[in-house]
Amino acid sequence: MKANVDRIIASLILVTCLASSIGVFVKKGASEKRDASDISFSWDNGISSKTDIAIIDLYGPIMYGSSSGFGGDSNIDANQIISTLEKIDKDKVKAVFLRLNTPGGTASASQAIYEKIQSIKKKSGTKFYSFMQDVAASGGYYIASACDKIYANPSTMTGSIGVIMQIPNYTDLSNKIGIQTTTIKSGKFKDIGNGARKMMPEEQELLQALINDTYNEFSMAVSKGRKMPIEKVRELGDGRIYTGNQAFKNGLVDKLSQEWEAIDDLKKDLKITGKAKVKNYTKSPFEKILGEIGAKSGMPNIDTLLNSTDFAPKLQKIPLMLYR
Amino acid sequence: MNLLDNIYGVLFKPKDIFYNFFTRSNFIGSFVIITFLSIINTFSLDIAGFLVPMGMSFTFLLNLVIWLSLSFILTFTSDILKGEGKISDTMTAVAYSSLPLIFIHPLNALSFTFGLEFMNSIFTPLIYLWSLALLVISLKYAHKYDLGKSVLSILGILSFLIFSITAIVIFVIFGAVLISSSF
């Protein structure tokens, strides 16, 4: 008799636990269904059909390669963004929504991402919208200008259209502490930017020409992306920064709004009446680290070496041109 | 002995039940327990649109892997402590000790229905402690050693976990250093 009571209690416990588990599952499902009518998009869980909108987060300085350590700050690796864009193109995603929060970066990395966006737009007709968060200056704006629409907060910091190269000179300090550098070089410009001696006027001219050329590329890109006369881009692009408000008044931004409004606009642009399927294609820091460990098993290529700001201080002979 | 008797005994009379508990039929019963746990865990999966059969096989596999690895490590630590039990005994002990975890679900139901979230935060740790206590007792009988050694073998798992996490962290840091030094 006692054994029977024990069995009944055990069965009741099992049934109650199973029933409560199923009950919560059903109830949660019902409330999610109810909530779903209030939102205009759903996150793609990877099982369902094609993604409508791909999100890419561009957070940190833009460069080739990654400077991130475990738990450290990360940057935007142009190689990774380009491969992500290629994947999005392969997945036949209708639109890409870039979330920018970057002070800028190296000229070539920003340009590479810009060019990739342009080529996908041309090839597949994919729509590109960008939303500037806290900062999207210089190289960040370069990338944004490739998009069909640029959205920003009124207080976003943007602009800073220009190119900068800074070369420290420590001649006086070296003289004071008695350090002399002997340079043996194959050509007269091989040690251009050598901080141990004063810069020659012709070296300055040469570097200025580089800066001008890169600035020209930048302003042309903005002019093409924004469909704005080059003269106006040059007038606005004197290196100054703008708030989102000022940028909007000057035509550097299409609309002042919040992120969800921008996604709603993109949805309307895509003529999606129901819920849009949204998927974030940004790699997690862990994926980035794993990807890099695999990628770095071979030798890095020379472009990666020359364009990494991390590498620049170690190679003082190569001044970097930065969009920042 | 009936499975239901075992369940009742493990939950409410653990000190009496685990003596002479580690038999072949109870080892088979432990598979039933793990399957049952997998089924009810599937419904608590908080993934919108996740298909139930798919989720069930996923949680079953996950539970199986956790169960096997935990049992393997516990047998290993018990062997070091001169325990006499086999891996099947440890598996039985681990499976039956997880039984209190089923109470998390009615608790979830209560907190979800009546908004009593504080109940979760109070009772869930207690349920885990209950399960841990059962594991200590069951291992004692499974490996025929004293309670101190049983606690030590569980602490062995903790040190194994700390060792594994440290190894992963070192691996990642080493990888990151390797990357930055390759420039």
How do you describe this structure in short?
The complex is a heterodimer of chains A (324) and B (183). Chain A is built from 11 helices and 13 strands.
Structure description:
The complex is a heterodimer of chains A (324) and B (183). Chain A has helices at residues 2-36, 78-90, 107-124, 139-144, 171-177, 201-226, 230-236, 244-249, 259-269, 285-295, 302-307, and strands at 41-43, 53-59, 62-63, 76-77, 95-102, 105-106, 127-137, 149-152, 157-159, 241-243, 255-256, 276-280, 322-323. Chain A is an alpha/beta fold and 324 residues long. Chain B has helices at residues 3-12, 14-17, 24-43, 52-80, 87-97, 104-114, 117-142, 147-181. Chain B is globular, with a radius of gyration of 19 Å. The model of chain B has no long low-confidence stretch (mean pLDDT 82). Chain A binds chain B through residues 3, 6-7, 9-11, 13-14, 16-18, 20-25, 27-28, 32, 42, 45, 47-48, 65-70, 72, 289, 292-293, 296, 299-300, 305, 308, 310-311, 314, and chain B through 2, 4-5, 7-9, 11, 36, 39-41, 43-44, 46-51, 54, 102-103, 105-106, 108-110, 112-113, 169, 172-173, 175-180, 182-183.
